[in-house]
Amino acid sequence: MDRLIFTPDDVDLTRSPLRRGIAEPTYVLGAFNPGFTRLANGNLLLMVRIAEALAEPVRGDAVRAIRWTADGYVLDAYPLAAVDLRDPRQFAMKARHHRILALTSLSWLLPVELDAAGEAIVAVHYDHAIEPVATYQDYGVEDARISRIGDDWYMTTCSVSAERHGTTLHRSRDGLRYELLGIVLDHQNKDMLLFEGLVGGRFMAMTRPLGECYFAYPPDSPFVGGPSINFAVSPDALHWRPLEALGLRARKGSVSAMKMGGGSPPILTEAGWLTIWHGVEARKSVGIYRSFWALMDAHDPTHFLRVEDAVPLIEADPALTAAIAHQMYLPTPVVFTTGMIDLGDHYLVASGEADLACRLTRIDKARFA
């Protein structure tokens, strides 16, 4: 069973943190890619990414971007002649030695509480929204992943700025109120997933570093060069050491070998550590995103028991977004899984649908047999 649980129309922008500085009209470009966890009270929580954009980004001969400062939110203007506006999510600076982007929106995180079965919204906690608080987040906070480890909840996010594009860590004692602990992985190491439990007494994570250059595998290798998912360990969740053991690699023959990245934080099942990840098929400016899954050994997660990269577990469903199709802006189907909760005989999986809304999918446990 699939349905949208939270959409752009569910956001009250009068309570947006951007009201501290931005008086011009804005709209929700997307309410998507939610971190997902169970709270101490038994209810479920979606930590929803709210991408808030100017209703009129272009004014005169300039396009404007939103930026956080310690004194409030401001607008920066860039000459139209100096930018490429073809991507609705961002614009690229022309005539630069490096690929340099600015965003058409600024993202902040909104906690949305659901009942214990994930069937209804109980509360929207604007008072606990997470927004930028440092210059390394001045273009926003994106794509939360939440893992409960012991008595605490750990949330990784992607912090975006001209300074860096890195992974930040938050911690909570109740799953709702989070404290920022700072940067844990540096430039463009995205989609960091903490295992939901210690492994050999240490914190363990799946990471996905990005780069501008990748090296080729030998011609007879089953793998394709490009972004991959790696492993790292830490004594305290703050200081991470990459492992030499190979993680997930894109394989030849898969339709989603163009790019891959972490989806749901690994959870421990009777069969081993289970995680959902995304693979991307090259298509237009934005590829087609699908969700796949992998099972890792309970004692040594670097040993993969199964990697399913042929048949998608979850694919984008245009029927889900039919009622809000007028708000669609991506040219290709996208589903981006971000969390999974055990509900007995099935899992409840949270995803971003079309970079627009939050989707819940019920998957029978027999699907992973």
UniProtKB/TrEMBL annotation:
Transmembrane segments: none annotated. Keywords: Glycosidase, Glycosyltransferase, Hydrolase, Transferase. GO terms for molecular function: glycosyltransferase activity; hydrolase activity, acting on glycosyl bonds. It comes from the Bacteria. Belongs to the glycosyl hydrolase 130 family. This is Glycosidase. It comes from Sphingomonas oligophenolica.
